[in-house]
Structure formats: C-alpha cells, structure tokens
C-alpha cells in the first residue's frame, strides 16, 4: 500500500478524467474533431488517469533496477500487482462514492465486536472486505490534507485550486466550454464556500467512519471539523460582504422618496439629441416626459403622459 501511495499520481497531467474524455486531439487539414478524447481516454475506458498511473507504475517495476519487489516469488508478485490495481484505481473518487455503503456496512458489523482480533478476523477472512478497507484507506490518505493543521490545509487548498483554475482556462480556450465554478478562477472568492461543500459531502464520511472503525483515526476527523469551521467563517464573511453590496445596489437602484415635492432624474442615451426624464412625486403615479431637442432651431417639443402605478 505504501508503494501504491507513492505511485498513485505518477505522471499526472494536471487535468481530471472528464477533461481527458472531452479533449480535442484530432487535426486534419486544419480541422479538429471535438470530444474525441485524449490518447489516454482512448486507451482507458474508465478511471482514465488512475489507470494511467497504474500502468506507468507497472512499466517502472518492469525495470529490474527499479523493482523493489524483485525478490518476491511469482505468485507473491502477482498478488502485489493485484493490490496495486485495487489501491491506485481506488483513488478515483467516482468509485469511492460507489463503495461508501459497503464500507459503512463493514464498520457497522465490526463496531460492536469486543476485541481487535475479532475485527481483524472478520476482515481478513473475506478478501472483498479487505479490499474495500484498503480502497477507503487510499481515499483517506489522498484527501488527508483536509485534516492537517489550518496553515497546511489552507495552503494546500490554494495549490489545488490553482491547478483546477488552470484546467478551467484550458476548458475555455481548448474546449470552448464554460468551466464549472470549482474550475473557474473568476469564482475564486467562492473558494471557502466550495471547500465547505467538499468537506461536508466528500471528505467527512471517510474520516467519520474510520474514526468509528479505529479510534486512532479520530484526531484526523477532529482536524477536518476544525478546518470546516475555519472555512465556514471565511465563507460567512464573504457572504456578508456580498449581501451588503447587494443591499447597497438595491438602494442605489430604488426610486427616491419625497414629501410632496417633484424630483427629476435625467437619463442620457446614445443619441445626444434625445434625453429622457423621470418625474417622481409623492402621489401614487409618476410622470414620464420625453424631451426632444433640435440644435438648429432650439425648439423643444414635449409630450407628457401620466401613468398610474
């Protein structure tokens, strides 16, 4: 598992599986075909980047000088390769969501057990259970920055966001698509809010269930909740600022209130010979005056119409 963790993102391209699927790759006489997929997408039908990391790792292990498992027997090495498959492919979050219920069922079954040996036997005697636990451990490691002290977590979040924004730029320029907010650098101010959603709907489950499964994981779950609190405070500050701006905007756009006096607001349009005036009064109606001017004769024609609200 440690070796798989080292290799799980090897030769990463800085883009996700969806981008690889939608990438423009074919050019014929200056023409391109959209949505045809990258070479990696054509090679791997699902979990595109994860399968690339896996195959790249196997290529490295084919070199005797790089193969740390070179002294294993053939059967043992085949087991290692299978576990590499399980662990690296498990870092595809799409698969994580599919396995969450199975993991929770395992935790529910082992939580009442009195001894650690009973829990270990329950898992070890069933290869499927063991692989689900390993897969969830890989996800827990992959997302672990979310549990780190705030100074580490905030920096990592900005680094990841910067990578997402680069992909968003590519989606605009290469795919001619509008990126989702998470990938859109124009939505950078929404990062705290998006981090809260990421923690609550993606990360929290795995650390909450692992803290039930193994008490030593509890500090990671505690760290996650501290970071969630910090991100929520930042999100609330941003939301308050935006609400204040919106309120001020409404005040500026709203018609002024007066007591029995007529107030005139002049609105200019592109045609400099035409101006419109709004005349507000304290009654339940307003007067709309259209004024047309003729620069040559200095004559003014006015048409006034009373409109009931």
Automatic annotation (TrEMBL):
Coiled-coil blocks: none
Pfam families for this protein: PDEase_I
PDEase domain segment(s): 1-238
Taxonomic superkingdom: Eukaryota
Residues the entry annotates as binding Zn(2+) 1: 8-9, 142
The entry's keywords: Hydrolase, Metal-binding
One example GO MF annotation: 3',5'-cyclic-nucleotide phosphodiesterase activity
Alphabetized InterPro entries for the sequence: PDEase, PDEase_catalytic_dom, PDEase_catalytic_dom_sf, PDEase_CS
Residues that, per the record, bind Zn(2+) 2: 9
Gene Ontology terms: biological process: signal transduction
PANTHER family assigned to the protein according to its UniProt record, in alphabetical order: CYCLIC NUCLEOTIDE PHOSPHODIESTERASE
Protein name, per record: PDEase domain-containing protein
Organism phylogeny: Eukaryota, Metazoa, Chordata, Craniata, Vertebrata
